[in-house]
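RECORD TYPE: inverse folding
INPUT: structure tokens
STRUCTURE:
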């Protein structure tokens, strides 16, 4: 029996598995889809990576130090990562969160000891952004405000870690990368590194089809407060995703692949399957990689699980 070295929670962020999604591509021989299983991170989502990088950069710059309260807006997952890391590193965490964030997310945040400021549900993540700016502006000396939507350390986390892992795990075979936009950090950072290291790879963004949607944590850029880190020139093109398509894919992944993933992950895989269908119809092979952003444990109260479809 081998003995494994003990490490702190931070050392387990990253190096997540890349899973082959064979059943959802059964109708498209010659095209492979892989999902980066980010729910293996200790905080349960892809947001552990940028949250850690923003905290470390804040400490290096002297902006985050003992006694400061970490404050930001979140739709849930980045907040959970902040709360987990804050607990591990001894910082209080205060988060502005839309009222309609799933009950599970709110309970997890409170379990880590985070203070929640709930904002109107109909304003979505933009309402939380406006609220955190208001709180920070009133008492800037009290807080460290990383501002995940404007902080280059967000996308740089994926440039430094997510993309190199994908390149290694696919043996450089990846032909397409596709991901929904939220802060846009995952898509921008991963795509920039892939395009740098593997010229010719196609990077395709995805967005909810309208401003009113059920894809928690994602943005319809034409109607949203556009994150400062977003660069529309990075994507080769964009796919528009319906909420119901993401819901259906979440259930399909559970029942066909044995993977319980969250709603944005379902949207990502739906986008990847849409792309796989296009490639198959064109007679082209492909190795498509997308992101399984988090697990389904934060969404089990959603009504779509009860639908017969």
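DESIGNED SEQUENCE:
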């Amino acid at each position: 029996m081998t003995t494994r070295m003990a490490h702190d929670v931070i050392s387990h962020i990253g190096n997540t598995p890349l899973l082959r999604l064979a059943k959802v591509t059964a109708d498209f021989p010659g095209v492979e889809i892989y999902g980066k299983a980010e729910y293996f991170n200790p905080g349960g989502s892809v947001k552990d990576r940028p949250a850690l990088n923003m905290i470390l950069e804040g400490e290096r710059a002297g902006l985050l130090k003992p006694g400061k309260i970490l404050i930001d807006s979140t739709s849930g997952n980045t907040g959970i990562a902040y709360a987990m890391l804050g607990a591990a590193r001894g910082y209080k965490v205060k988060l502005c969160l839309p009222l309609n964030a799933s009950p599970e997310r709110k309970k997890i945040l409170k379990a880590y000891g985070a203070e929640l400021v709930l904002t109107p549900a109909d304003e979505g993540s933009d309402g939380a952004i406006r609220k955190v700016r208001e709180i920070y502006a009133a008492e800037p000396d009290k807080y460290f405000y990383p501002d995940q939507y404007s902080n280059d350390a967000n996308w740089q986390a994926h440039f430094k870690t997510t993309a190199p892992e994908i390149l290694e795990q696919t043996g450089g075979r990846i032909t397409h990368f596709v991901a929904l936009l939220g802060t846009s950090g995952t898509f921008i950072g991963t795509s920039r590194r892939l395009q740098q290291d593997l010229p010719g790879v196609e990077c395709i963004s995805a967005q909810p089809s309208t401003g009113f949607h059920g894809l928690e944590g994602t943005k319809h850029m034409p109607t949203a407060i556009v994150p400062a880190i977003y660069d529309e020139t990075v994507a080769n093109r964009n796919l528009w995703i319906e909420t119901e398509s993401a819901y259906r894919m979440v259930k399909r992944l559970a029942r066909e692949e044995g993977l319980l993933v969250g709603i944005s992950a379902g949207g990502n895989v739906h986008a990847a399957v849409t792309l796989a269908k296009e490639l198959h119809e064109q007679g082209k092979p492909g190795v498509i990689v997308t992101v399984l952003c988090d697990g389904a444990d934060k969404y089990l109260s959603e009504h779509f699980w009860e639908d017969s479809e």
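NOTES: The helical segments are 48-60, 77-89, 103-111, 124-138, 152-169, 185-197, 243-257, 263-281.
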